[in-house]
Structure formats: C-alpha cells, structure tokens
Amino acid sequence: MDPLSFAIAAVPFAAYLLLLGGICRSGRPLVVNGANDLVVLGLGLTGVAFVGPLALFRPEAATAELGEWVWVFLLALYWLTIVLTALLGRPSLVVYNTTAEQLRSALATTAPQLDPASRWAGDSLSLPGLGVQLHLDALRWTRTVSIVANTASQDLAGWRRLAVSLNRAMQRNPAAPTTLGIALLAGGVGLLAASCAWLAAAPGGVQLAVERLLAP
Predict the structure, then answer these.
(1) What is the tens place of the pLDDT at every residue in 87-112?
(2) Is 60 exceeded by the pLDDT of residue 128?
C-alpha cells in the first residue's frame, strides 16, 4: 500500500475513532438514532471503501469514458447504498455509556409515562399506544446497547418520542469513563500520526499514487 492510499483510508477512520473515544471518555449516556449511527460509521469507512472495493471493482469502461470523474460516481454510489440501508432498516436507537441493566431500568421508568399499557416480555418491550415494539441488544465490552424494533411495521413518531424521553432519563444516570475510550483515542491519534509521517517521508510515492489514481 502506498502512503496516499493509507492516508485516504486511515484519516476518516481515525476521526471516527476519536469521536467514539470522546463519547466513551465523557462518561455521559448518549442516545442516538440507529440510522444516524450507521451513517456516521459509513463516513468513517469512506476512505477504506475508496481504496478497497471501489478501487478494486472500478469499471474500466466507465473510467476510460469519465476519467477521474468516475470516483465521484463511485463515491455517490457508496453513499447512496449507506443511506438506503439506513432508511430501509428497522427503527433502532443506540445508547452509549450504559449497560443493559441501566437501560432497562430507565425504560422501566420511561415506558409507563409514555404508554400506561406498556409491558415487558424478557428483554422485549411493547408500547402499543406508541406503535413501538423493541428488544435490547447489548455489547457489554463496549458499554453500548442497541434498542432494535422487533418488526418492520413501527410508528416512527413513537420512536422519536421514546428517544427524547429516554435521553432525558439516561442523563440522570452518568457512568464512569471507560478505558476503552483511551484505547479509541490512542488508536485515532496513532493513525493520524502514522498517515502524516508516511506522507512526509515519501513525497515521491504520493506523486506516483496520485498519477495511478487518476490514470484512465
């Protein structure tokens, strides 16, 4: 891999790691829409996709016809795929800096206020008055819990109300910063430093990489 390709792949991903590291080190629970979370991840992986699948499967005929503009269309295709996946996926929420037990406790307080008919069944919660049916999916080592719709047929307005109320409830339960945040921040800084160092050390390689990238 040449220094330019490494930098293109590493810099957006490093920014994503720094963002996650900052969230983890804050120690404050954060509720985000699952679709938005996917889009941010897609942004962090844009460089990896650019030097990986997009470069590998770049159509030769389109490249000969469009020249360097082919990259604009390939990136647009990548982003349309990410956005379409986010829009067509089941409604979900992602809660950072919490555990399944803490989130369940917050939901147990919030759900009856939103819908007196709410009821639990294991890790699944039904709020028929909001048109919401969900279950919890925890990643314990990251202290991140996903709230995922049980079915595709859901009331999006109900999910928005749930997100607002749950975010307020979670702010009353701050958590201690995790060591994972330090690891993520260190990884992001390391990737940025490695990218800058390699680019500075091999200017000739960068020029060759640019010419190869723009070659028909």
Answers:
(1) 888 899 999 988 888 888 899 889 99
(2) yes
Amino acid at 120: W
Query: Which residue's structure tokens are 């991140």?
Result: 144
Q: Cβ distance 177 to 27 under 8 Å?
A: yes
Residue among 94, 160, 172 nearest 127 (CA): 160
Where residue 36 falls among pLDDT bands split at 50, 70, 90?
very high
CB 116 within 8 A of CB 129: yes
| Residue 76 to residue 70: CA distance in whole angstroms | 10
What Å distances lie between residue 142 and 12, 109, 201, 205, 206, CA to CA? 21, 24, 36, 38, 37
Sign of CA dihedral 9, 12, 17, 18: positive
The pTM of this model reads 0.85
Q: How far apart are CA 107 and CA 117, in angstroms?
A: 14
With the C-alpha atoms ordered 45, 51, 57, 60, is the resulting torsion angle positive or negative? positive
Of all residues in the chain, what percent are helix, strand and coil, respectively (each to 5)? 65, 15, 20
